[in-house]
Backbone:
């Protein structure tokens, strides 16, 4: 994967500006995997997608992640630091798993695929967790049979649903990363869901805003074009900014 220059990165940011977060995740994924077809990216499981986004994050902004959370009890804002490598599930857990799997339990036989970005986009507006989960499974359970008779997902009993969910979590462990946090103010402990797509987009947004301000100052000070400024190395941009005294 070659590295992106400042102009290309600004273009990526601009493409995602008016898009919802899931679309932004796919735009970033296309940066990570420029050779892949769009259907391959949209069909990729959430965990596999997030592995690529974590590696992209490391390439663009380095291996250390600084994140913030708000204590659900006392609202204290806490900052926590992780290395990208700490959050990557070991590769060997992914080697064997395919996008589709079968479940054969009691008299039920199911064919299921792992949830992808389009599945999450379809259910994310549903405020009811249980109904959203059923909606997700309706999309991801491709076939159900009981003793040779075809069934709909709606007719699956809860214990079978639980087996499906457990199997999805087992085969796509990178899809849900939780960070164990402790509030320094009230000692409350909780686990926060880590969202690499949201974090990476927010970092890209901060970087882009800062870069545009830099372009504005250098263009105002020296009369250079945007392209000239973006083609400078980060060190030179910084030095010229310093000489302007801004
Ligand atoms: Zn607290």
Residues:
């Amino acid at each position: 994967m070659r590295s992106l220059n400042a102009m290309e990165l600004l273009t990526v940011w601009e493409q995602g500006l008016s898009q919802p977060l899931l679309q932004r995740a796919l735009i970033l994924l296309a940066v990570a995997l420029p050779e892949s077809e769009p259907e391959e990216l949209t069909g990729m499981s959430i965990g596999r997608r997030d592995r690529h986004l974590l590696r992209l994050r490391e390439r663009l902004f380095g291996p250390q992640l600084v994140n913030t959370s708000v204590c659900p009890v006392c609202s204290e804002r806490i900052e926590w630091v992780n290395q990208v490598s700490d959050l990557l599930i070991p590769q060997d857990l992914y080697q064997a798993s395919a996008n589709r799997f079968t479940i054969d339990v009691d008299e039920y036989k199911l064919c299921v695929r792992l949830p992808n970005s389009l599945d999450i986009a379809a259910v994310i507006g549903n405020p009811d967790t249980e109904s959203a989960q059923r909606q997700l499974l309706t999309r991801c359970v491709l076939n159900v049979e009981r003793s040779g008779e075809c069934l709909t997902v709606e007719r699956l009993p809860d214990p079978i649903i639980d087996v499906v969910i457990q199997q999805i979590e087992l085969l796509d462990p990178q899809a849900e990363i939780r960070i164990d946090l402790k509030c320094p103010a009230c000692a409350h402990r909780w686990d926060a869901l880590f969202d690499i797509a949201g974090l990476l987009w927010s970092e890209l947004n901060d970087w882009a805003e800062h870069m545009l301000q830099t372009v504005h100052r250098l263009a105002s000070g020296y009369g250079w074009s945007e392209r000239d400024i973006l083609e400078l190395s980060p060190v030179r941009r910084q030095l010229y900014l310093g000489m302007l005294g801004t």
